[in-house]
């Protein structure tokens, strides 16, 4: 990925992560105004979804993906994909449940045991999401993912011909220079 394009993309990703962190930190201050809190929750869910879309688009841009080795990308970024999906699901579930309980009466105590457990799980998943997502975004800046290289050829031969690392030396003549 070109350095100017990567800088813009990483800036957008970090901005969306900061927005998500802001909503997680301060959304309860707006519990007295249902519409404001609802808008914040919608913005947060859209930001998470945009971050997932951006990382998928970054996958598409790699040489590894274009060479047909999608499995390598999925393997390398499996934790990020899983944590992002779980965090999005927990966020939507918490937002829907909290707004459903709170909408009719903003002064009522709505923190049921289930909502509190979901709140804690969503916040803990948020910490994991911030870590894994930022790590994946920075790892996708690796120039080896955007050009042909020896490790990519080895991975290609391993996946296409069913070779393991022990037999790889025997097919060295198939190098693509």
What do you see in this structure?
Keywords: Cell projection, Cilium, Cilium biogenesis/degradation, Glycoprotein, Membrane, Transmembrane, Transmembrane helix, Vacuole. Required for ciliogenesis. This is Transmembrane protein 138. Belongs to the TMEM138 family. Its main location: other. With about 180 residues, the chain is mainly α. It folds into 2 domains: about 5-145; about 150-175, no CATH class. The protein is built from 7 helices and no strands. The chain has helices spanning about 5-25, 35-60, 65, 70-75, 80-100, 115-140, 150-160. Helix 1 (about 5-25) runs antiparallel to helix 2 (about 35-60), helix 2 runs antiparallel to helix 5 (about 80-100) and helix 5 (about 80-100) packs antiparallel against helix 6 (about 115-140). The longest helix is centred in the first third of the chain and has 28 residues, at about 35-60. It is elongated. The chain starts with a helix and ends in a 16-residue tail after the last helix. About 15% of the residues are buried. Mean pLDDT is about 85; it is low at about 165-175.
